[in-house]
Design a protein that fits this description.
The chain is an alpha/beta fold. The protein contains 11 helices and 8 strands. The longest helix has 14 residues, at 73-86. The two termini are 23 Å apart.
């Protein structure tokens, strides 16, 4: 396993972790305000059967200094798609947690060939079904007091078994971003609609969901996404119950060949 950088033709340089040297390629995409190190335990397991690439998207982790003209889902998806092309892996499987799932879906639309997409608790918010008032209500606490809102997000969306010190780490890392970049991205994400991606992507789409995904989101995904339930998980299953999550992710990936 190595940590280095990936220079893109656009001029951006992404911090990446690479592991494994055989099997299909997995591109692991973290969530909003998160970072590639969230995937560390998964990488250690997956590298036995896959070539694994985890990236820090612009504005996040060790790539947080990388600039974007527009901070929205489409722009991040373009970066993820560019990374796949730069890696020369047209048959990659895109695995995205939370916002990373939205990025993975939009990146898959831009790529000529992907083997599949795995969404990890992406639809904890029912994207495509929020009213404008609901989107504003969810976004406003982050505009009012960003660190406190991040604190509340971690407290309210993690499973009860997560240790206090782990929550403290998550809060510190997720708050270590530029709100001037993250707030417009958050607002755009809340207004993102997956309908066009679902209509255009022909590769299989799977989802690993915890207990928080609402019925409206399941209805939205019906017919497009094969769901796998991880009972007892909150919004961060790769952190909350890594062994069970890795086992389910491995089985899900095997279905994609």
């Amino acid at each position: 396993m190595t940590s280095d950088s990936l220079k893109l033709p656009s001029g951006l340089t992404l911090a990446v972790t690479r592991a494994g040297n055989h099997g299909p390629t997995l591109l692991l995409i973290h969530g909003w305000t998160c970072r590639r190190s969230d995937w560390q335990p998964a990488i250690e397991t997956l590298q036995e059967h896959f070539r694994v690439i985890a990236i820090d998207l612009p504005g996040h982790g060790e790539s947080r200094g990388q600039p974007l003209t527009t901070w929205n889902v489409e722009a991040l998806a373009s970066v993820a798609a560019e990374a796949v092309r730069a890696l020369e892996e047209p048959g990659a499987i895109l695995v995205g947690h939370s916002m990373g799932g939205a990025v993975a879906l939009e990146a898959a639309r831009q790529l000529s060939s992907v083997r599949g997409v795995v969404l990890v608790d992406t639809f904890v918010i029912p994207y495509g079904d929020l009213t404008e008032d609901q989107a504003r209500e969810i976004a406003q606490p982050f505009y009012d007091d960003f660190p406190s809102a991040i604190d509340g997000l971690v407290e309210n969306f993690t499973a009860s078994n997560v240790a206090a010190e782990e929550k403290t780490r998550m809060k510190a890392e997720m708050a270590d971003v530029n709100p001037g970049h993250m707030l417009p991205l958050w607002s755009d994400l809340l207004r993102w609609n997956p309908a066009e991606a679902f209509a255009e992507i022909t590769a299989p789409i799977h989802a690993i969901n915890g207990d928080l995904v609402p019925d409206a989101a399941r209805a939205r995904c019906k017919g497009h996404v094969t769901e796998h339930r991880l009972d007892g998980a909150g919004h961060f299953p790769q952190v909350e119950m890594p062994a069970r999550f890795h086992e389910l992710l491995q089985k899900t990936l095997e279905k994609m060949g």
